[in-house]
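Hey, resending since the last one bounced:
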Amino acid sequence: MALTHGPRDLTCSARGCREGATTAIRWRNPSIPRHRTKTWLACPEHVDFLADYMRYRSFPYEFVPIEDLRTQDGADG
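The structure tokens again:
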């Protein structure tokens, strides 16, 4: 499953999913020296799948509710 959407449209990042996201997953790849954080969004159906993807690759990640993401990024939803 690849990613096709993201924070701009608040749609789930799982391939083929067009559902509205309820959770943001902020993650980074520790093997890259720059500590760049990326954000994937998940609908309730895909939260576990995307978290499993992070755990499998040993990427550090955190869950952020969409409402908090809007506040942190200054979006006015």
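The chain has one domain: 1-77.

Sorry for the duplicate.
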